Amino acid sequence: MTSTPLPVAVLGAAGRMGREACRAVEDAADLELVASIGRGDDLEAVAEAGAQVVVDLTVPSAAKGNVLWAIEHGMHAVVGTTGWDEQSLGEVRSALAGAPGLGVLIAPNFAIGAVLAMRFAEIAARYYESAEIVELHHPAKVDAPSGTARHTAGAIARGRAAAGLGPVPDATEQDPDGARGAVVDGIHVHAVRLRGLVAHEEVLFGGTGEQFTLRHDSFDRVSFMPGVLLGIREVSRHPGLTVGLDGYMDLG
User: Fold this and answer.
1) Is 118 annotated in some ligand binding site?
2) What sequence ranges are listed for the domain Dihydrodipicolinate reductase N-terminal (predicted)?
């Protein structure tokens, strides 16, 4: 017996990520693209189309409102838009508390390799005294540091805490121009914006007499689509809010 394809709507469909997501959903036999929404389009078209999963690939200023709207209308949401803070995440959790059975995935990065790199970084962090992150993206990216870098810094901090490690050593006393970068969860993060890049991250670990580097590169936005499809297919099985695609993967 052939099952009915899962109806999906993509918000931000006119953007580069949105266009790829629309193609990926259309090419998937078990999914159906029922609405593709661009800037200024009425979200009610998503409800009228009968979407069960909303994929948000918009901009930080619109994402929270879109997710809350989806929850209010009984739809799961898969979100690739970054720029979330704890207050916004708290609002989503509160909305989901009144919508049992609904799931929301907010993924800083949908590339499978990037998710693995974050997990590996948490493991490696236990064994190295020093750790820093360099994230490199295209110049049209509106937030810095990237959501991936923030998520990676959090993973490193958890690994260091589990190993009982203290602060990363750094004797810098003067840095009026911010050359040492941002500090996220105790980890220095450096953001590069260059024409020609898509999404790249280096995680640098240092120990006595050695350096260990994890690097992931997305050269094309098509690299994010396996993760987007995974999120769409799995979100209904994970009620509540999940931050990070690793929550849907068996990574231990």
Assistant:
1) no
2) 7-110
pTM here is: 0.86
| Residue 112 exposure: Cα atoms within 13 Å on the Cβ side | 10
Q: Is 239 annotated as a binding residue?
A: no
Rounded CA-CA distance 198/200 in Å is 7
**Which of residues 153 and 252 earns the better pLDDT score?**
153
Catalytic residues, which ones? Answer: 137, 141
Residue 178, annotated as binding a ligand = no
Residue 110 is assigned to a ligand binding site? yes
Tokens of 238: 């994970």
Report the chain's terminal Cα–Cα distance, integer Å. 34
Nearest to 74 by CA among 50, 107, 41, 57: 50
Q: Assign 2 a pLDDT band (cuts: 50, 70, 90).
A: low
Q: Which of 38, 95, 36 is nearest to 64 (CA)?
A: 95
Question: Domain 112-219 maps to which CATH number in 3.30.1490.110, 3.40.50.150, 3.30.360.10, 2.40.50.90?
Answer: 3.30.360.10
pLDDT tens digits along 170-221: 999 999 999 999 999 999 999 999 999 999 999 999 999 999 999 999 999 9
CA distance 147 to 108: 5
80 marked among binding-site residues: yes
Which residue bears the tokens 């609904």?
A: 102
Contact 92, 104 (CB under 8 A): yes
